[in-house]
Amino acid sequence: MMKYYNINTPRPIIPRKRMILVKLGGSVITDKGRYRTFDREVTARLAEEIAMARRDVVLVHGAGSFGHMLAKEHRLHLGVTDGSQLLGASRVMNDVRELDLEVCRCLSDNGLAVVPIPPASCATMRDGQLEHVDLSIFHRYMDRGMVPVTYGDVAWDGVKGLSICSGDQMMMALAREFRPEKVIFVTDVDGVFTADPTQDPLAKLIPQVDAATLDALPRTERNVDVTGSIFAKIRYMIDMAGTAGECLVLNGREPGRLLSALRGEEVVASRVVG
Known about the structure:
By secondary structure, the chain is α/β, with parallel strands linked by helices. Helix content is 35%, strand content 20%.
């Protein structure tokens, strides 16, 4: 019988104290403003940094421009209850698998034995919320020395038919299960700012972020994202900070930052606390 993680059911914790959970944001590995535009150069460098660190990692990546644009066009964030949406859902699932293949190729080219684990094959949703994940799959591959790679996807939903399973939802499930030493969110900016740094030159990096900080941030949006606002993402990070030794948000477009964080060195970043 498969072992499932149910977010509503208490279960024994299986910590992997030296494991690091890494999320490669869609804004880093793709151009979120251009449909299906993969940034191979940046992703290959990040893969090299992960390999150089020689740490046990589990990787999650966002869908970026391979997922959000079509998902929004077909209203998949609202569920799939209309048969006309099925083709759109299928196209999104195919696109994000192509992105995952590109990411995994960069990782394997740097000597990492990766295994892709699509949420559509291991997760179920209920009314847009992650309900079950078969985490035994992750354990089995990690026990064999492989690096699991999962991502934002379309998954079965018991209420909505199909819905979006975000990379952040998978991050939360993995963090609760494994209690990693560190959680790292790799973005296209230096961390969490007082305002959108791409729009406001006076925006300042916030070195430590907690719930009070989040409440004080101005509400702004950029680009298309069907998995929720940056505030929802930071809320996930705050929740995850309670399960990990450390939670960082850093800029993956700056060479060496991810490597430094993986090695436990000081790095320009925002530290998220629960």
